[in-house]
Every structure is written in C-alpha cells, then in structure tokens.
Specification:
The chain has one domain (2-227): P-loop containing nucleotide triphosphate hydrolases (Rossmann fold, 3-Layer(aba) Sandwich), CATH 3.40.50. It has helices at 14-23, 43-47, 55-61, 91-102, 107-112, 134-137, 149-164, 180-187, 211-227, and strands at residues 2-7, 31-35, 76-77, 83-85, 118-125, 140-145, 169-174, 191-195. It starts with a strand and ends in a 14-residue tail after the last helix. It is globular and about 50 Å long. The protein has 241 residues and is α/β, with parallel strands linked by helices. Helices cover 35% and strands 17% of the residues. Helix 3 (55-61) packs parallel to helix 4 (91-102). The protein has an eight-stranded mixed beta sheet, sandwiched between helices. A hairpin with a 5-residue loop joins strand 3 and strand 4 (83-85). The protein binds adenosine-5'-triphosphate (ATP) and magnesium ion.
C-alpha cells in the first residue's frame, strides 16, 4: 500500500500529516515514511539524521534486481522511533532516484501491490508541469489543502493533471473554510478528512487523544476501507476546525 501526500500551495503541513499517518497507521501494521519531496529532503536536517542511508541507497539497492530489496535496511529512526527513508537535499538526486523507484517493475510498484507493506510518501508541493512518477503508482494521492477561494483554481488544475495520469486523488482539508461537501461538489473529488488547526510543540502528534491525531487516524481508516473492495464506504470524518 502506497499513500502519497502532497500540497499545491504553501506549506500546509504535508510532512506533519505524512509523519502522523505513518505513526498512527491502524490495525498494528507498521508503516514507513519515505521522503520524496522534489525540492530536496529536509527531514534529515530537521531531525539531525545522517545523510545515509537514504532514498539514494534504496534506489541503488534495486540494481541489478529489485527482488529481495528491504526498505527497512534504508531507514533511519526519527526521535519518536518512526522509521524514515530520508531524501537527499539535492533536488536532481531526489528526482533521479524517485524515477528509478517508481519505474515499471520497480520497488514502489511492488509496494503498491502489497497490502501488508505500508509506505507513506512525503511528496511536498506538487509541480503540475512535471508530476512526480509516484503520483501514478500510488494507491492514493492525498492533496492537503486549505479550503479557501484562492486555492480552488490551483487545485482544479492539479486535480485534472493528476487524473490525466490515472492518480486516485482525494483531498484533505486543513482548517476552516468551505465544507467538505462544497469542495467535493466544486472539484469533483472526494474529501478524505479535515485536519484541525493544531499547532504543537513538535511536528509529530503522538497522542491518540490529540484531536489532530484522531483526524489523521480517521483518514488512515478511510484509506484502508477503500483499499478493500468488499468494505462499505467509510463515512467522511468531519472534525471541527
Ligand atoms: N494542522 C496544523 N495546524 C497548525 N499548524 C500546523 C498544522 N500542520 C502543520 N502545521 C505547522 O506548519 C508548519 C509546516 O508544517 P510542515 O513542515 O509539515 O509543512 P509542509 O507542507 O511539509 O511544508 P514544506 O512544503 O515546506 O515541506 C510546521 O510548523 C507545522 O508544525
Ligand atoms: Mg514538508
């Protein structure tokens, strides 16, 4: 299972959402965060991690064969213990390694076909002129957006370009603004959830009693529900902003 998280504008909290989804992935399954932000990695710098292992060592491990590649051999641990594959800071390096990882027959395609392996991708801000290849291979693309008028036009363009390459895109709303129904009606895509405005001391909300964490957990449950065709649709979680 491969879940991509991205934004279209500003810094709405993609890294925080990707980290929290990874940390709180339900049903005891362990998830791994993989940083693929095309502008270059920031997680290693932010958390004082080493430059390697990284996305670069993971991509290199696929040659000559993807068989037997273990993502866990390329992770580092965040202070919270969360396993993360960090991206290199060089954008060209990220783009080249992501292209290899997301190529047909590559590691990410394998992950997307494996419900037991959960990888959450921190994709950063979407570049609609040059969509990351992970957008096609991911089972779900979550666009984190503020539901305000000035984002609608950008979002419409982003959603159409994602749909053209076959992405399964849904929205995650941050904070106050249009309702989920209004966003869905206007843009023609589903809303996976709404995150509250919740500043916190660190990036990662650990407590399940935390309103931000609860919203993220609902989103994860919705993703799992959609991934099983026999399961009835999960009601859209609405959390007051
Ligand atoms: N729901 C939220 N409520 C309040 N603050 C938030 C929320 N989500 C994220 N933040 C804060 O916003 C800042 C940016 O968050 P984050 O780094 O996750 O954004 P990003 O979208 O990944 O940005 P970038 O595109 O620069 O990587 C952080 O200080 C984070 O704590
Ligand atoms: Mg980020």
């Amino acid at each position: 299972m491969l879940v991509a998280v991205a934004s279209v504008k500003g810094a709405p909290g993609v890294t925080r959402l990707a980290m929290t989804l990874t940390a709180l992935w339900p049903h005891g399954a362990s998830a791994t965060l993989v940083e693929t932000d095309a502008v270059g990695g920031t997680i290693a710098g932010r958390f004082g991690l080493a430059a390697s292992p990284s996305l670069t060592t993971l991509a290199a491990a696929m040659f000559p064969s993807v068989q037997g590649v273990r993502i866990g051999e390329h992770t580092q641990q965040l202070p919270s213990g969360l396993p993360v594959v960090v991206a290199p800071t060089d954008p060209a390096g990220v783009q080249a390694t992501v292209a290899d990882l997301a190529a047909a027959g590559g590691l990410l395609e394998q992950v997307s076909a494996d419900p037991e392996t959960v990888v959450v991708l921190d994709c950063g801000r979407l570049d609609v002129r040059r969509l990351s290849p992970v957008m096609t291979v991911a089972n779900e693309v979550l666009l984190l957006v503020r539901p305000v008028p000035e984002e609608i036009g950008l979002l419409d363009v982003a959603i159409k370009s994602l749909q053209r390459v076959g992405s399964h895109v849904r929205l995650v709303l941050r904070g106050a603004g249009y309702t989920a129904a209004e966003m869905s009606r206007t843009l023609g895509v589903e809303v996976a959830g709404r995150l509250p405005e919740a500043p916190d001391a660190g990036l990662l909300a650990r407590s399940r009693r935390n309103v931000y964490a609860r919203s993220v957990e609902q989103i994860a449950l919705g993703i799992i529900g959609r991934a099983r065709p026999s399961t009835a649709a999960v009601a859209e979680p609405e959390v007051a902003a």
